[in-house]
Amino acid sequence: MDGGRTLMHDWQHLRVLLLDMDGVLWRGEQPLGDLPRLFQRIASLNLRVALVTNNATRTPAQYVAKLQRFGVTFPATHIFGSAQAAVAALQQRFPQGAGVYLIGEEGLARAVQEAGFRLTEGNAQAVVVALDRHLTYEKLRRATVLIRQGALFIGTNPDRTYPTPEGLVPGAGAILAAVEAATDTAPWVVGKPAPLLFQLAMGRLDVRPEETLVVGDRLETDILGGQQAGCATALVLSGVTSEAQAKAAEVQPDLIVPDLEHLLSWLETQRRHPGQHIAQ
């Protein structure tokens, strides 16, 4: 497989793939490859899958519907987004019924409400900031006032951009930067690269980190987060990271491949011929 490289790892113990979605499975509404066939190949390797994304705009049910449009049937219980990580963080710090102000979209609002927290624009104990494609100055102003009054500042994820068919566009990290600049307060970021999302997924699938491969397109979130969770990591070049950027980065994955299809081909080779490396 030209253009890839791998570090040493015992791939024979691999049981689970934790896949990012944007930049790995699709870019916007454009699938990256024949997704039904790719999931069939994963099953043929006797591997289980969870989907782990920093995107908090959609609910698991909405991701299930998107996957179905691409011809893939997938359980909502195996989809983990940064909205769930934000809920876990709120549950650590506050009782049910606590007031929360949100900058975000439906996926985040629904997750927070279903966990028993109260959405409010005043007297909030926490402010949770995520990607919001309907962001206004008023939302930024309200978040700033609440945080300066003492509300806990939680960020779902630090992704400054995310890939679309027309190129990179602003992500949650860009909004976090604006709120941080206005409040002089750094957020508690609960999504990747924090290990919480990976830990939630591994707990659901009952696997250990050494049995898990994290697959993503971002070094600073997917790969670093996977490493902090104790997992092997694979970087795909189908999203935001180029091969040159990957080779020059301080964070180095166990494996660099062009896309998910090439990764599965390599794993199939490993099952047949353990220890074979990818040519540089």
Structure explained in plain terms:
By secondary structure, this protein is an alpha/beta fold. The chain folds into two domains: 130 residues, HAD superfamily/HAD-like (Rossmann fold), CATH 3.40.50.1000; 107 residues, HAD superfamily/HAD-like (Rossmann fold), CATH 3.40.50.1000. Helix content is 37%, strand content 20%. The protein is built from ten helices and 16 strands. It has a seven-stranded mixed sheet, with helices on both faces. A five-stranded parallel sheet has the order 8-7-9-10-13, sandwiched between helices. The longest helix is centred in the C-terminal third of the chain and has 13 residues. The protein starts with a strand and ends in an 8-residue tail after the last helix. The N terminus is likely disordered.
**Helices and strands, in N-to-C order?**
EEEEHEHEHEHEEHEEEHEHEHEHEH
| CATH homology group of the largest domain | HAD superfamily/HAD-like
Q: What's the story with the biggest beta sheet?
A: 7 strands, mixed
User: Which range does the strand content fall in?
Assistant: 15-25%
Instruction: Return residue spans where pLDDT drops below 50 for at least 5 consecutive residues.
Output: 1-8
Q: Which secondary-structure class do the elements indicate?
A: alpha/beta
Globular, elongated, flat, extended or rod-shaped: what is the shape? globular
Largest sheet strand order:
1-16-15-14-2-5-6
